[in-house]
Amino acid sequence: MEASRPQVQVQAQAQAQAQAQPKPKEAKLWGGRFEEGVTDVVERFTESISFDKALYKHDIMGSRAHASMLAHQGLISASDRDSILQGLDEIERRIENGEFNWRADREDVHMNIEAALTDLIGEPAKKLHTARSRNDQVLTDFRLWCRDAIDKILVSMKQLQVSLLTLALNNEGVIVPGYTHLQRAQPVLLQHLLLAYVEEIERDAGRLVDCRARMNFCPLGACALAGTGLPIDRFMTSEALGFTAPLRNSIDAVSDRDFVLEFLSVNAITAVHLSRLGEEWVLWASEEFGFITPSDSVSTGSSIMPQKKNPDPMELVRGKSARVIGDLVTLLTLCKGLPHAYNRDLQEDKEPVFDSVKTILGMLEVSAEFALKITFNRERIQKALPAGHLDATTLADYLVNKGVPFRTSHDIAGKSVALCTLKNCQLLDLSLDELRSINPVFEEDVYEYLGVENAIQKFVSYGSTGSACVASQLDYWTKKLEMK
Ligand code: ARG
């Protein structure tokens, strides 16, 4: 059956009435040339106050610096500056106490604060927007906001690294199967694997630090796009706001969003790292692996299956990485093909950034907590170790030490594994005669290389899983993360 379209009732009369007596609206701050106000539909569609009020603190910071500079340059009087500064203090207080009335008809955070300041202090407030446009203002706010967000993420990253290192220090000597292709490959120290995550997060943090440095330039004073004819001092506002310097090019200053693209790329890479950690721990908590037991405090149950205990936080870490990647893609798509300079499309840049930051902070926080609430099941891991001939590569290394070319060693070790498969045993269980039947080069000392405990001791290369290397890496991280 064909679905019928809902009937749209056009209430012509009511509409005509509304048009005849428009409810009185406050004139827009930009309303000089307009004869009528925007419709409610347009107002609802174009407002950004519902989300950009998150920028209020940074908007006020920017206005304080701007007003002080205007006074310093003689563009406003000292007493106007003082009224503006006092008024901004009061507005900040009201916002923080939940007493501020955010109004959608005042569009965005910038106009809400400026209009409220005018309500509060009158004439001097009308001078605040001298030599400033919302285009440079929004970017000043946004860069300041992102800078703070980066600082918060960096703290959370360090907390995760500390948790992972704590987990490593509490699990000395545990050997786990190392995988490639999710097939058993070689034995590794659990500590070595945990430190691999720490390394990944360290590079993510490094990327954030780089991004912060490139972001930390001031758009304020670029105005709409061309700068201004008024004698402002952009270096003064830049310095007051803790920026490295003013952005050199006013068109670039108001049109580019590469600082957020870079920020969201870093978050996306971090999210991908965390999703891999999430996947690994979900897998390891399964009955099939049974390598870890998360505590009840980080697990959840099923509403139908009474026996279930699920590692939901790490599943969601894996899942939420999708949002963080999506936020980056949204922003890339938003910016693609936009003509210079500012376009209203760019108002859409905020929500993906807010979402990305909130999500990545949550992912880091929950991973750090989870890491401190899991137990490694040593016995279960121990039982799992013999399967998969994890010492086969070490056997090949043994043969190389005996002067056998590696390709031949690989072949001999492979044949030894084949014999094990035939006999359903471990390499360690083959007698010297059996090994010699494959190749006479084997001697009694081969048994020093076989079995995972022996094999792990044989790793000596820089960065390898050998106990000595791992110990020195643990030492490095303990110092770097100031855990001693
Ligand atoms: N709310 C706007 C945004 O986030 C502020 C800048 C608007 N500028 C303009 N000329 N309409 O992009």
UniProtKB/TrEMBL annotation:
It comes from the Eukaryota. Pathway: Amino-acid biosynthesis; L-arginine biosynthesis; L-arginine from L-ornithine and carbamoyl phosphate: step 3/3. Keywords: Amino-acid biosynthesis, Arginine biosynthesis, Lyase. Residues 32-326 form the Fumarate lyase N-terminal domain. Its EC number is 4.3.2.1. Pfam families: ASL_C2, Lyase_1. Residues 7-21 have a biased composition (Low complexity). Residues 390-456 form the Argininosuccinate lyase C-terminal domain. GO terms for molecular function: argininosuccinate lyase activity. One of its GO terms (cellular component) is cytosol. The keyword Magnesium does not apply. Residues 1-26 are annotated as: Disordered. It catalyses: 2-(N(omega)-L-arginino)succinate = fumarate + L-arginine. HAMAP family: Arg_succ_lyase (MF_00006). GO terms for biological process: L-arginine biosynthetic process via ornithine. This is argininosuccinate lyase. Belongs to the lyase 1 family. Argininosuccinate lyase subfamily.
